[in-house]
Every structure is written in structure tokens, then in C-alpha cells.
Amino acid sequence: MNDAQPLQRQLETAADKLDLAAGIRLRGYVQQVGDGVAQVVGLGDVGYEELLRFDSGALGMAYDLAETSTGVILLSGTELVRQGEGVRGEHRLPDIPVGKSALGRIIDPLGNALDEGPRLSSHSSRPLFQPAPEIVDRRSVDQSLWTGVMAIDAAISIGRGQRELIIGDRNVGKTSLAIDIVAAQKPGDVACVYVIVGQPMSRVISLRTTLEKAGCLGNTAIITADASSTPGMQYLAPYAGASLAESFRESGQHALVVYDDLTKHADAYREIALLLGRPPGREAFPGDIFYIHAELLERACAVCEQKGGGSVTALPLIETTDGDISSYIPTNLISITDGQIYLDSVRFERNQRPAIDVGRSVSRIGSVAQSPGMRKAAKNLKILLSRCESLESLSRMGLEMDLGMQHTLERGRQLRELLRQGRLQPRDQLEQIIALTAIMKDWLTDVPLKDTKRFIEQLSAMVRSEREGLADTISSEKSSEHDWMPMASAVADRIRPSYRKDNGQ
User: Fold this and answer.
1) What is the pLDDT of residue 72?
2) pTM, entire model
3) How would you write 181-195 as a 3-class SS string?
């Protein structure tokens, strides 16, 4: 009798787990399959964007609901799907595990680990497709996202909750610039999500190595659908990044998400749409490609205090051909985003890196997100660079310049030299403000151009040592130029003669 009780308990447990409804659950079968999509019939109750499971174990997503069939985007196991095999609905939408456990990891758009780490916990997950926050739930963008890149922080300031496009030709440093911005974010202050679409896996590993060397891998989640992934996974990757970033915003934190890049995302969506038989439009893209990207990027914003006060900042990357920003996808994204950082191939070839064309770049937030100290120091930066380039063009034509024009040209060249910045070498706000002030106040008079950077580094170090805590107060509302500028000017006068001597003067 005692032996029968454990057996009875086992039978009761098995009976509780038995799902009799599965035997009568509606199933379909594959009518046609190929090139990453399948046509399935017999699933009349399937929902839009619902996950489907094939008998072979492959995973798909219902995306084209026709009267007699269902167009399915294949996500995994595409080589296993055969014509005639069964398929059933999973009754759930695509989702991704969220939380701090994703930081420092490489995962695919469905949250599967692609590195040597353990599987992510699915206790806390978030659907990939989410509506953007309502207008009443948003707040104005007024907090600066510090990038450590002087050309951006001074001339094209980015705010937390902004959508700033990084645009340029192939191999001009778009990814490098995005990595530099990610590396400048402090752990615990801004969580980073880096989305890679359609790149070789070797580049994903290289990105991870770079972030690890920079000491910011633990603050960054890498979501990738590499070049060997299906078009469906490449299509889902940016949405997975947006959902993961939104999970930090919902907890009252700030997040930065990089989409590298949306050109390949648009190509993947075009491939899916054409394979599913949707009518092509301009450049063979489907008519809703603008809506697809607008829906994605609208999810990046800053929310009000009642919703936690967090933010998601988006940096989409887009590739142009021969500097043509008037093609279809670039013009779409320029009109969607809050500004663009334009990288110029000519500047890149001249070793002016990052190769940012300050004149063609813009932030529609303006100086609102800048600190008062930076706003004062950088107010004439664009004008000076523009005048310098104009004078250089005239000098190449043989025009004789007076002393005033020569002085402007010299200051512009010094500024351009200071805007040149090495990889993974972020500059703090104190150094940037002192560098800009030194240009505008002529503290660099008679300093050789090649010594400009060294002079500013020494000046910043001495100012920092003479006035403890200046780095924290120089950008505050209460800080005044009279609090530090006379002291900095005196230090500059004190060290300038040594540079003249080095130049043989």
C-alpha cells in the first residue's frame, strides 16, 4: 500500500501537466518555403507578429495575414523547414529578457546568448514591439549627454532623450565615433545598448574587445543579428535594442542605444517585403519603410517624473554613397531625427578625425542641453571654423590677407587642431571649456600649431591642480567666468614662453 502512494502522486502530477487542448489545437502546414520566408495555410486564428513553431523546431513570425494563407518570416532553423510540415501558433509575441543581467553580454534579438556566458533569465522580459510613449508622458530634452568628443559637445550638443543621426560614407569612422560615445558613459549613470545589424561576426567580436579594453563592456549590452542571420532576425534586432533600453528608462535610469546601422535594417526589410509579395515603391523599398523607422525612433525620448524621469537616447547610423544625403533612406531618417552628425570623407582622408563636418552637422536641440560654461565658451565656434575655411579657400587662390585675416586663419587652424581627437580618448568638460576659451581669448598666441594640444593639456592640468573642485563647478549655473578665468589666463601667460622657446623664437 505504501508503494502505491508515490506512484499515485506521480500519476496525479503527470495528469496536471497533461494538456489535452494541445490535441485539438489548430495547426497549419507549410505550403511554400524559400529564402527566409514561408507561406502557411490552415492558421486562421493566428495573430499579427505572433511567434510560430514548426514541427522541425524552427521558429517563425506571422507577418502577412492574407485571406487564404499566412506569410511567415523565418527566424531560426530555416534550413530545417520543409514543404508540408506542420506548424502551430505559440500564442505569444517576440520578447527579450531585460535587466542588468544583459549588460556585458552578446545576445541575439530574442535574448539567446551568443557568448560563453549563461543563458539569460526570462523572469523579466519585454515585448520587442512597443508603442512610443504618449506626448503627455514626455518631457523636454534639457540634460546633456556627455560624449567626450569635443566637436560634438561644443558644436552639436546631444541631450538625453534625443535622436541624433550619424551619417556618412563607408569607412569614414561612424562606428568608431559611436564606440567613443559609448565609452564615455559612466557605469550606473547611462546604460548602453549597441545593436549591430548585418555585420560579420568578426566585427562583433572586435567591438566587444574594444569595449572591454576601454573598460565599458560591463555597462554595454550588445545585440546582434550578424550577416549570417536571417533577414527576419536582422529586422527584429533594432526593436530588441529599443525594448532593452526602455527597460532601463522604466526603472528611472538613462539609456543610450546605438543602431549600427539602419541601412542594413532597411535592406533586410525590403528583402522580406519583396519575398512576401508586397508592392515595391521608391528604390524597391515598400511604402511603409518611413513608418517602420519612425515607429522605431519615436520610442527614444525623455519621460516625465511621474513616469520615472528616465530617458532613452538613440544614435542611428546610416551609410551614404559618395556623400549623397538626398537618397531615399537618408532623407527619411534626417526628417525623423532631431539632428545629424555628418562625417566627411575628405576630412577623413586629411586625418581630421573624427571627420565631423561641423558646418553640415546640426542638433535641433541647440544649446539647450549644454551647460552654461560650455554654452559661453562655444558660442562662436561654428563661425570661426566657417571663416577659417573661407579664408583658406581664398589663400589657395593667391589672395593677399591683412593681419586681421591672418589672425583669424591662425585661430581657426588652432581650433581645428584641438578638435582632432584620438580613439577612446574622451575629454572632460573642464579641458574642453579651457581649450575653447584659450582659442577665443588668444591665450595661444605664438604657440606653434603642433604644440597646441600639449599646451592645452598642460594648462588644464595646472588649472585643475591650483583650483580644487573647479571641474565640478565650472559648468554649474552659479559659476562665473570671473571665478576662474583670470587665474587660467595667468597660468597660460606663465607657461607660454616655454613653448616659444621650443619653437626657436
Assistant:
1) 95
2) 0.90
3) HHHCCCCCCEEEEEE
Number of domains in the chain: 3
| Nearest partner of 235 among 245, 217, 223, 246, judged by Cα | 223
Question: In terms of C-beta density within 10 A (0-12 exposed, 13-18 middle, 19 or more buried), how is residue 24 classed?
Answer: exposed
**Does 127 lie in the same domain as 141?**
yes
pLDDT at 185: 92
Q: Which range (21-35, 242-256, 265-279, 475-489) has the least confidence?
A: 475-489
Catalytic residues: 364
Kindly report, residue by residue over 330-348, the tens digit of the pLDDT: 999 999 999 999 999 999 9
Provide the CATH number for the domain around residue 44.
2.40.30.20
Per-residue b/e over 376-404, b at no fewer than 16 CB within 10 Å? Answer: bbbeebbebbebbeebeeeeeeeeeeeee
What's the residue count for the chain?
A: 505
User: Within 10 A of 197 (CB to CB), how many other CB atoms are there?
Assistant: 29
* Same domain, residue pair 220 and 250: yes
Q: How confident is the model at residue 202 (pLDDT cuts 50, 70, 90)?
A: very high
Answer yes or no: do 168 and 300 share one domain: yes
Residues 285 and 270 in one domain: yes
Among 354, 370, 386, the domain boundary falls at 370
Instruction: Kindly state whether residue 2 falls inside one of the protein's structural domains.
Output: no
CA atoms within 13 A on the CB side of 452: 22
Q: Is 295 helix (H, G, I), strand (E, B) or coil?
A: helix
> H or E stretch including 34?
strand 27-34
- Domain containing 33 equals 24-89
**Residue carrying the nine cell digits 589666463:** 489
Residue type, 201: M
